[in-house]
Amino acid sequence: MARLFFLLSGEDPTLPFSELASILEAEGYEFKILQKLAHVLRLESSPESASTIESRASMTRICALELFLCQANVDAIVENLERAELNDLVTEGETFVVRVKRVRGSAPKMGRLKLERKIGGIISSKVKGLKVDLEKPGKIFVGVLTEDSFIFGLGLAEVRAKSFFERRPRRKIFFHPTAMRPKLARCMVNLAQPKREELVLDPFCGTGSLLVEASLVGCRVLGFDADRRMAVGSIQNLSHYGLVPEGIGVADARHLPLADSSVNCVVTDPPYGRSSTTFRLGVADLIESFLADIIDKIVREGRICLAAPTKIRISELSEKIGLQHIESHLVYVHRELTREIAVLKRG
Fold it and tell me: Taking a C-beta distance cutoff of 8 angstroms, is the pair 211, 189 a contact?
């Protein structure tokens, strides 16, 4: 166990924290949360977890091995850096660079570039033979100015946002205006906590956004949609990324052709927008009927991550059916729609 810190994206106030914890739980890492700061989570866990976060997370930007946390002023930073033990982290002949990030305008009087140069000079003086390389450094030291604090450490992993950008809905073979953006889809998959090779079901698969993200983290995927055109489009999008599902079928989500306890978890975004069809059913009735049917088809302790308009009150509806409500997150879409991302569990 080591002290780690994670720089999280600022696109949502709660989802990045829950996604990170869900990944660690799904992958079996022991961890203890130490502190939540603006866009930063500090915790104790294995440094090996960094590579797992890098491969799965959508709302984490950087993972680092923590060296110190102090007040956001130059004197405190210099004092703590002078005391920090670096010889086990970098050695003579290696190259390095220092990157300082600022969250929400924290410590506005401290110049990032000036601080990077000062920290870099101290590191160079503490470990002989180190060279600064701004282009292809061997080691990256990361500092984050957040609230009134400065947290500093050695970078272990960085999540690249480019791949999510390349999978945005309009770049896929089959497009529909209701398609979920890939970062949110990946986050929902992680909140359901599937392990690699486990079977993830999306009974309202649409264009396959959730199935693509689940497959890319190593899960087996199965999808259904009541609209044949959507099912075919989902197959096309999965194929475009070289992904092979366990199956994609045309079926009513209220009566899925599945055996009891046959799927590990469910991740889904039922139809409720103007460009979607609920086949003349009210959205609340559709979701309630689906949950009543699916409860026996997931394994014991299996999770469901479901997106729905806030007016549906998923937490109340799910508990009435017999599902345990774990958590919910509100995601603003536009003036007429705020999504509730709810995590449920079968007892």
Answer: no
Sheet strand arrangement including 199-202: 247-250, 220-225, 199-202, 265-268, 303-309, 337-345, 324-334
Residue 143 and residue 101 in contact, taking contact as beta carbons nearer than 8 Å: yes
Can you name the residues that pair with 345 across neighbouring β-strands? 303, 324
pLDDT in tens, the chain (347 residues): 999 999 999 999 999 999 999 999 999 999 999 999 999 999 999 999 999 999 999 999 999 999 999 999 999 999 999 999 998 899 888 999 999 999 999 999 899 999 999 999 999 999 988 999 998 999 999 999 999 999 999 999 999 888 899 999 998 999 898 899 999 999 999 999 999 999 999 999 999 999 999 999 999 999 999 999 999 999 999 999 999 999 999 999 999 999 999 999 999 999 875 444 555 678 888 999 999 999 999 999 999 999 999 998 888 888 889 999 999 999 988 887 889 999 999 98
Class of domain 164-345: alpha beta
Region 2-158: CATH code: 3.30.2130.30
Q: Which tokens go with 343?
A: 């995590």
Q: Of 189, 193, 339, whose CA–CA distance to 268 is shortest? A: 189
Domain boundaries, the chain: 2-158, 164-345
Q: Give one word for 313, left, alpha or beta, with left for phi > 0 and alpha for psi -120 to 50.
A: left
DSSP one-letter code for 299: P
183: helix, strand or coil: helix
Which of 125, 268, 94 is closest to 192 using CA atoms?
268
Domains 2-158 and 164-345 share a fold: no
**Rounded CA separation 275/223 (Å):** 20
Query: Among 263, 164, 172, 167, which Cα is nearest to 221's?
Result: 263
